[in-house]
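I hope you will forgive my troubling you with a question about protein structure. Could you please explain, in whatever detail you think fit, how the structure tokens follow from the sequence? Thank you for your consideration; the sequence and its tokens are set out here.
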Amino acid sequence: MRWCSTGLRKGLEQVAFLTFFVVGCGGGSKNYVLQGTQRDPGADARVQVEKLDGGNYLVTITATNLTPPNRIGTGNAVYLVWVRPPGGQAQMESQLAYQGDQRTGRATLTTPHRKFTLLVTAEREATVNQPSENVVLQQEIEM
């Protein structure tokens, strides 16, 4: 009986150590749930941010219930994803792959910033230099 309790205790110690190592050392990923802004209140999204080797972060956005971009503003045709670091300018990092028939969108990007504001905007074209006021999703991200 003593062997069983000792083995169980060692097993629990190993689980506790691994939990601390994965969670406590900042490894793994962080998830966010976003709600649409006033421009598209029915929209929502899940964002996963994962630390990569070399110090960059992988950001995966999965959006649902998105209104077609042309209904957010006249002439809008695409959704763009922006990263704005604290005190910095927003940079366009990706185009959201929008599926109009399903009202969903997905994008993946990498960034060196561990803290930033993530924006999804409806735009007329994918070559704009700054985000418009047509922000449909927004979230402060910090790893």
Summary: The domain at 28-142 is CATH 2.60.40.200 (Immunoglobulin-like). The longest strand covers residues 91-99. The longest helix spans residues 2-24. Residues 1-6, 8-12, 14-25 have pLDDT under 50 and may be disordered.
